[in-house]
Specification:
By secondary structure, the chain is an alpha+beta fold.
Length: 248
């Protein structure tokens, strides 16, 4: 889960170091990663607004980086760049998923910590978008097809080797009068040393919270999580639910 925000006017490498220092007691490891481009959900016929695939600019300084702050267990991760702040939980070894509520509580705490750095430098943290995402790697049991797992794929005689699909739906307010978010689905096939063949199914809920308060952002993320859980159940088959021993 995470947010996109307006870049602080005094942002530099020292500012990024101060952000890490805020979380360093818990996230002791540091790593650089490729920068993420902006992505905003807009409505009224337009799709996600993002930076074009090709860009040309002349600059005297190199673009700011994205930083990973990693906990000792390697499963909890903070991502920070000049306009983004994310918290991830990753499956590592036999560690147990701590459940959404615990992660959401931690994220709210860390978001307040980042706000403190902004305020110490004389500017509010202006949040423009929030998002929550679930990335599911689903091993395909031998002699099963994709249609055995997903309701959105019709049975086929084809033994599909590669698959990449992306689609989305607009989420409306409770009164059904205005769009509040977009839920994106990303589906592909993959393999690894641990899993010979698997589906990678990502569900990403993104939009603008009603205001920039931490409570408003937490409420937005919680609503997104509920939508994702419901849609995951909608697009996966009853047979899959039995294999996973799903409980209502």
């Amino acid at each position: 889960m995470g947010v996109q925000f307006v870049r602080h006017p005094e942002y530099n490498d020292l500012f990024a170091w101060e952000v890490w220092n805020t979380f360093r007691a818990e996230f002791t490891h540091f790593q650089e990663a490729p920068r993420l481009d902006p992505a905003f959900e807009v409505f009224g016929g337009a799709e996600t607004v993002s930076m074009p695939a090709f860009q040309f600019s002349i600059s005297q300084s190199e673009p700011s980086k994205r930083y990973w702050f990693i906990a000792d267990d390697d499963s909890h991760l903070l991502q920070f760049q000049d306009d983004r702040f994310y918290m991830n939980w990753r499956k590592r070894h036999q560690n147990k998923y701590p459940r959404y509520e615990a992660i959401a509580e931690q994220f709210a705490k860390h978001l307040e910590g980042l706000r403190g750095v902004f305020q110490a430098h004389g500017a509010p943290m202006i949040i423009k978008q929030a998002e929550v995402a679930y990335i599911n790697v689903i091993p395909l049991v031998e002699k099963t097809a994709i249609a055995d797992w997903l309701t959105i794929v019709k049975p086929s005689v084809l033994n599909v080797e590669q698959l990449n699909a992306t689609f989305s739906e607009v989420v409306l307010s409770e009164d059904g009068k205005k769009p509040v978010a977009r839920l994106r689905y990303e589906l592909g096939l993959s393999s690894s040393r641990e899993v010979r063949r698997a589906m990678r199914l990502s569900l990403i809920y993104r939009g603008a919270p009603t205001d920039i308060s931490t409570k408003s952002i937490s409420d937005f993320l919680a609503a997104g999580r509920q939508r994702i859980v419901k849609r995951f159940c909608d697009i996966t088959t009853e047979e899959a639910h039995k294999i996973w021993a799903r409980s209502q």
